[in-house]
Amino acid sequence: MKTFILGLIFGVLAVVVGGYLYFSTGMVPVAVTDPDMPFEKMLAHKALSARIDKEMPKTAPIAADEASYTAAVTVYKDNCAVCHGLPNVEETKIAKGMYPHPPQLFKGKGVTDDEAGETYWKVANGIRLTGMPGFKTRLSETEMWQVSLLLANADKIGAATKQALQPPALPVAAPPPAKK
Predict the structure, then answer these.
(1) pTM here?
(2) Is the pLDDT of residue 69 over 80?
(3) Where do runs of H (alpha helix) occur along the chain?
């Protein structure tokens, strides 16, 4: 039994020392272009999902309607679009250079399969080590819910909201003055 206990202690110490050396000697992939650490995605997704399931609001305090979606457009364009994109607009260089890559919320299914409360939790709290900031000190509850409802229902928004999500048209350059 004594040998078993000593082996167990040695095994735990070996894991702790090995982990410390892995992190302290610069072997950890920390650059955006590096491959994932072993189990990184699985552990991060498990922890995030468990926390969101535990804390996310189950109901939205405002209506999921076209007025809310349209009100969310300015907030989304000012705070979210640089990373998460706009419909029919090429992904920004900022988004292309991030790790983990931010989802393009108006391409594919986006987060339309997520409950609005899940998106609200992410907007309010942010996600550590992803570049996703928390907005609970910078946006009102209503603004965070409006954006969350817009994204949860992005596949159902009307033409007015889709039009409002378009970037402004680029000015056409005037032709150079004629030479005399």
Answers:
(1) 0.80
(2) yes
(3) 2-24, 40-55, 66-79, 81-84, 93-96, 116-125, 141-152, 159-164
